[in-house]
Amino acid sequence: MEGKIVQLSKKISLSFIIIFICFILDRVSKVYIIDLFTQSNVSNDIYVNPYLNFILLWNKGIAFGLLQSEQYSYHLISSIILIVILFLFYLIFKTQKNWEMLYLSIIAGGALGNFTDRIYYMAVPDFVDLHYKDFHWFTFNIADICITFGIILFLIFDMFKFKNKNNNE
Questions:
Q1: What is the pTM of this model?
Q2: How many other β-carbons are positioned within 10 Å of the β-carbon of residue 10?
Q3: For residues 30 and 111, is the Cβ–Cβ distance under 8 A?
Q4: Averaged confidence pLDDT in the chain
Q5: Which residue out of 26, 117, 129, 144 is catalytically annotated?
Q6: What is the count of structural domains for the chain?
Q7: 126, 129, 134, 158: which is the annotated catalytic residue?
């Protein structure tokens, strides 16, 4: 029994560290970009290289700027995001698998970063502008990268789990 408690404590500690790292990387990057654009004579965008600019956009909707113009969306979206974050914490606590804890923690860290902005600013600052010639991808932030990376890990984990089940049969 004591061994399980120690193991659970280590898992929760590692999960907290992963969530904290994702959250802090996101917060620091956003604070830096917001300060850069508001405190200096920076134009609308900052050229980094032929494929990357920094541009400050405020997203009041959900991913990819959806639902930005809806009046009711702030409270509804915020409530749904809070429920998702709480559910992620529940899954992190319940899982027995390290890989699940890893990708759930990365997703939770990113979701917590964007949720914090939504509460503090009533919008999420997006600033990474990837482009090739005239094609621009959706503008995003570090929290979005964490969420996407966590989902990719989930898909990879699930794909190999499915493959292993088929190989065992």
A1: 0.86
A2: 10
A3: no
A4: 87
A5: 144
A6: 1
A7: 126
